[in-house]
Amino acid sequence: MIEPLTALFPSGDPSQTLILAGAAVLFLLLVAILVLRLGGGQRNEMMRRTANAEARLAELVRMQGEMHGRVAAMAETIVSRQSELNQAVSQRLDGMSHRLGSTITEQTKSTHENLRKLQERLAVIDAAQNNIQTLAKDVVGLQAILSNKQTRGAFGQGRMEAIVADGLPQGAYSFQSPLSNGTRPDCVIRMPNGAPPLVIDAKFPLEAWNAFREAASPEARRAAGQQFRRDMEVHIKDVAEKYLIAGETQDTVLLFVPSESIFAEIHEHFDAVVQKAQRARVVIVSPSLLLLSIQVIQAVLRDQRMREQAHLIQGEVELLMEDLGRLDDRTRKLQSHFLAAERDVEQILTSTEKLTKRGNRITSLELETPAGGDAATPSPQKSVESRTGLLRLRVVDEE
User: Fold this and answer.
1) What's the CATH code, domain 148-308?
2) What pLDDT digit, counting tens, does each position of 62-104 carry?
3) 267 near 274, Cβ under 8 Å?
4) DSSP states of 191-202 as a string?
């Protein structure tokens, strides 16, 4: 009985096999004891039951072995699948780690680039903020200047003086110079050809203008506009009465407005004031128009200086023409000297040529003795007698 039981677990756990074998042996001992105690019929019944029990036990052991094998196979399958799953999970984790690392690197680069751009923009914003702060300080200072009547007049006077001083030479203008009626205009420009000077006034009723600009309601704006119109008319009248002096000043006065925007809005909203100023021979000018007027006056002054210097230029041109005449006479005399010298040189060359030919003829003369056995036979050439012998003349062909 034991051998079949042990044969059922060839590849099982040894401890489990021993337990099962021990249980089977104990069961058989109990069955044997019961068989010995029972009678014949009961013994047979018991034997039959024992056989059935053994068969069932064998079947159970067999089923347990099969189950053990299935469990072992299932365990191996689970282990294999777990290994594959671990490998797949490891690969997935590696890929995910790589992608995550690449993504983090790209995000880091992008973050650094964005931070760099943000820093540049912040630097630009800081510079702009500094400029805005500086501009705000300048605006506050300008507001302080414009809020004070004296400083406002000095501001307009300063702008006007800068434009005039940049465009005209020294001596062509003067500031705060008195007139015959005791008034002192802000600027007087001396005109050419003895013409009366041009007067420029740099004062402007800015209080009424600020009230007109800062009016919150239409009624307040209308009232401020009327006040500004009255102030402008009074100021235009004062300027015309003070600075339009017959024979002493020009018949036109320039009223300087130190802002292009104010000048434009005056022409847009207060056309009646502009027309009245023109009728009073007072011309309202902005900085650009004043600069244009100064440039025109500068051109006129330049033309006057050129006309004043015209007679000097003509005198210098006459002297230059006299010098050119003398230079032409001397050049012609020098040319005649060169021609005479050339003729003399040609005559000298002719004389030297003749002398050269004569010298060549002299060098070709030969002297002969009247007797001499070794002498060559005389050629039929002309000869002349001399004291020392026979002088024979040989004609030499000359090229």
Assistant:
1) 3.40.1350
2) 887 788 888 888 888 888 888 888 888 888 888 888 888 888 8
3) yes
4) PSTTPPPEEEE-
